[in-house]
Amino acid sequence: MVLYVKKADDKFWHWCKNCSKYPELEDISETMPQKPAKNLCPECYGKKEDKDCENGKSDNKTGVATTKGVFARRYGR
Ligand SMILES: [Zn+2]
Q: Where is the composition biased (Basic and acidic residues) (predicted)?
């Protein structure tokens, strides 16, 4: 299942974890289990068209890196 996420100060919904604008876990303000009707991120859309969109349950390199980044920030101070 793809989860759509949105940052509080961003009007676009993202669903590709390798999108450069994909919010950090702690910055996500809203989530949607279904495709939003509007304001889809153009970069995520392009990745989907190119079949380069990383999402879903498979733990990929980006997901691990993101998790590590969050941990580093939380425990690194
Ligand atoms: Zn995006």
A: 50-60
CA 29/CA 43 separation, integer angstroms: 19
Find the 22 Cα to ligand 1 centroid distance in Å.
5
Rounded-to-integer distance, Cα 53 and Cα 48, Å: 5
Q: For residue 46, how far is its CA from the centre of ligand 1 (angstroms)?
A: 9
Distance 17 CA to ligand 1 centre (A): 8
Q: Where are the domains of the chain?
A: 4-75
What is the Cα 44 distance to its own chain's centre? 9
**5-23 as b/e: b if 16+ CB within 10 A:** bbbeeeebbbbbbbbeebb
Residue 33 pLDDT class (50, 70, 90 cuts): very high
